[in-house]
Amino acid sequence: MKHKAIITVKGQMAGENGEAPQTVELVTEGIVYEKEGKTYITYHESEVKGMDGTRTLIKVAPEKIVISRTGTINSQMIFEAGKRNDSYYDTQYGGFTISIHTLAYQVACEDQAVAFHVLYELDFNGAPTGENSLSVRAEKVEGRN
Length: 145
Fold this sequence. Notes:
Elements: E1 3-13, E2 22-35, E3 38-44, E4 55-60, E5 65-70, E6 75-79, E7 84-91, E8 94-109, E9 113-124, E10 127-140
Antiparallel strand pairs: 1-2, 1-10, 2-3, 3-4, 4-5, 5-6, 7-8, 8-9, 9-10
C-alpha cells in the first residue's frame, strides 16, 4: 500500500581546502511503500536544489540502498557497505563519472517511518571530494495515496 509521506533529506558534503562542510536540507512531500521486502521512497526534487523536473526513487534494502534520479538529472547511486560503485551522472549541462565508496550505513524501519543514514566517500571524474553523509527520513502521514 502506498502512503503519503513527509520526506526529509539532509546531505553534508566535505568542505574544500579545510573549509567547513556544506549542509543541504530538503523537506518535501512524497510517497513511501513496501514491495517484495524492500522499502521505496519517491519524491520530486526542488528548484532550490537545481533539480526541478527530476524524480527521485530510493530503494532501501537490508544489503544496499539505491538512489535513482530521472528527469533533468539522470543518475543512479548505489550504497553497499565496504564497496565502491561507479556510475554516470547526467545533467542538462553535461555528464561525469562518479564513484561512491560506502563506509557505513544504518537503516531503521518503524510502523510510521523509515530512515537511513549513509557515510561515504565520493569521487568526481576520479578526483576525491572527501567524506560525505546522507540522511533520509520518510514519515507516513494519515491516509494513503
